[in-house]
Design goal:
alpha/beta, BKACE, TIM Barrel, transferase, two-stranded antiparallel ribbon, eight-stranded parallel barrel
Length: 311
């Protein structure tokens, strides 16, 4: 692992997992996403991971016009790196998932490294009333669906976004096999180090959130990539802060945000993304770990620079 002299904090501000019923603080409209992103950056995040939502219903959408509504406005107010999702949302086609990346030509995109049973159906029984009609079915359908990221699809994203625009990737690895898939593309020289490897824990269908699960992912990444990667930790729900803290102590970077957890503490909904960023920054500072600025993150991740994007 290429050890970072400072910790890069990523904040994923809305995502495509949680639905509006689950929290009144989940950013929905472009203006809410702008406020969430700017607030997270001011709190200490150097990378902002972004999805779009239908401003009328809160449903995840690939609509590039919505991305291009909030991206320039965020850029005007902060120098944070903007990381655009190519995972999109459930049932989106690959073409839909790539629309925002083609429109924005960003410095950084997410890239899921394997197909998986991305299960959310177990969340639905927790709610008896829904703010919007689409929410319950959206979650329940994950019991019979699969999130597709085939080798062909991954290669297309690498070529059509990475090679075409000089965009780098946050490689999202939900299981050990995803690390081996990433190694396959590195061995084929379709990718160049440093790799930004985001190991993800605690989602049903992926690897668990036990500390030993995290250690196994790290050991595997060390064996496959050596000094050619930067490690980051994302843990879902209640595991967010504890695993991020553990990983940071071991030299990793961290990701927080309302995409990954709606809470800031046991039973306490986070009122903003900035609240989660401030909490992990406070923990890291107490451990004598320094936080990377956006420009330091760009240097660590070997990004092309904010002046080379399409917005």
């Amino acid at each position: 692992m290429k050890k970072s002299p400072k910790v890069v904090i990523t904040c994923a501000v809305t995502g495509s997992i949680h639905t509006p019923t689950m929290s009144p603080y989940l950013p929905i409209t472009p203006s809410e996403i702008v406020d969430a992103a700017v607030g997270a950056a001011e709190a200490g995040a150097s990378v902002i991971h972004l999805h779009a939502r239908d401003p009328e219903t809160g449903k995840p959408t690939p609509n590039p016009k919505l991305f291009m509504d909030f991206l320039p406005r965020i850029k005007q107010q902060t120098d944070a790196v903007m990381n655009i999702s190519t995972g999109g949302g459930l049932k989106m086609t690959l073409e839909e998932r790539l629309e925002a990346a083609h429109a924005s030509k960003p410095e950084l995109c997410s890239l899921n490294m394997g197909s998986m049973n991305f299960a959310l159906h177990h969340i639905a029984p927790k709610y008896t009333e829904w703010k919007y009609d689409w929410e319950k079915g959206y979650l329940e359908d994950t019991k019979k669906g699969i999130v597709s990221n085939t080798f062909e699809q991954i290669e297309r994203i690498i070529v059509e976004v990475g090679q075409a625009y000089g965009t780098k990737f946050e490689f999202e690895c939900y299981d050990v096999s995803h690390l081996y898939t990433l190694a396959h593309f590195l061995d084929r020289k379709l990718l160049k180090p440093p790799l930004f490897v985001q190991t993800i824990f605690g989602l049903l269908g992926g690897i668990g959130a036990d500390p030993e699960d995290m250690m196994h992912m790290r050991r595997t990444a060390e064996r496959l990539f050596g000094d050619d990667y930067l490690w980051s930790i994302l843990a879902a729900g209640k595991h967010q802060m504890s695993l991020c803290t553990m990983g940071a102590i071991m030299g990793g970077n961290v990701r927080v945000g309302l995409e990954d957890s709606l809470y800031v503490g046991k039973g306490a909904l986070a009122r903003s993304n900035a609240e989660q960023v401030a909490k992990i920054k406070r923990i890291l500072n107490e451990l004598s770990l320094e936080i990377a600025t956006p420009d330091e993150a760009r240097q660590l991740l070997d990004l092309k620079g904010a002046n080379e994007v399409g917005f």
